[in-house]
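Support request, please re-run this one:
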Amino acid sequence: MQSLSVYFNYDPKLHDSFEEMRPGENLYIGCDFNVENTAATVYVKRDGGKEWHAVDEMSGVRDAHTLAELIDERYQKKGHKITMYPDSTGDGRSNSNSTNISSIAELSSKGFSVRAYSKNKNALVNDRVNATNNAFLKGRLFINQRLCPTTSRCLIHQAYDKAGKPDKKTGYDHQNDATTYPIVYEMGLRVKLFSIPFS
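Re-run finished. Output below.
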């Protein structure tokens, strides 16, 4: 299992993007909270929202407070509307800037729209992996490798560990988590309920 890529449907040639963010357009940002290693992946939508293109990234950020400040300065103050897809466990976790404010509250305090699962619970890892591989397979997810080299590298290199789970020891997981939170939220498989009339 260690030799198998987690995101096996990602093809750097097939899924390369030359898209860049346009002035004032909406940005969709996934983020993973880690002290001294917070990561974020920035998306724009194309083709009427059918395609998601990663056009910027942040890695090795100190904490949620610093990330919120960076996003505010780089994007929001330049006219972009921000929608965040954070690590949901950050709702009950203080960041390292010595305050009692949770990581998700830091994002909300800047006026960002926040889309997350229920408190302290993320989508299952397998759901994120499957949703992301499916998005690559169906031509809905693309990565601008020149603007997002870390994102591309992590998608290529993260493998499964001996227990059959995505490896977390090689350091590729943080950026991949940030990259995939928006995808599972917006493109994850949903169970449709229906009724069958009978007599």
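Strands lie at 27-32, 38-46, 51-61, 82-86, 113-114, 141-143. The two ends are 50 Å apart (CA to CA).
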